[in-house]
Amino acid sequence: MKTIFIILATFTKPENIGINPQSMLWLLPLTVAIAVVYKATKLPKIKAGNFIKESILLFGSIVVFMAITAFILYIFAWFTIG
Amino acid sequence: MARRHFKDNHIPFLLFVGLSSWFVPGGGYFVLNEKKRAAIVFITITITFCIGLYIGSIGVIDPLGSMPWYVAQTMNTPVVVILGQITKGGAYPVYGKPNEIGQIYTSISGLLNLLCIVNSVYTAYLRKIEPAGI
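The joint structure predicted for all components is written out below.
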């Protein structure tokens, strides 16, 4: 019982996350969740191999697209702001 | 007329599937006997939601200060409404990056569950009209 309360207590105080480039990595688990749930709704039949392959492909596509977008925005900012 | 009557009879079932999905993520798929799909959706959405709460604490559920995020969060499960009543008084303050990441995680998991609610209801609808040959 005590253990349950200790676990629940961890949800009442925020974690200490700094504002640094590494904090951007928090988008990766979220992207995995989006890819997995989206593929779970779209695939007509769920088979482990195919499902994992499709999810990884979608995850990779999202990450690559975001990286390209970030790079373009960085170049744009570099040209306009300096 | 007969077709309309057929659909009307299944509205309670569609409602049941939608509510099951809302009460427990993946519940709608479970009702439709799609157990693998239900398990994947349940595990993924629950973990995403819990990560959000762990990072930002239950303070990220803020029905007064951030209404749009709260609406997305309530799509996870009705339990969010209860948590919203607990945090309404401002006893769990959270600011900055943890608040931001917590809100994004919990809201995105809510919107993913909304996708699953709509998809499970649509799947149930298709299953009901397919045997009739429509």
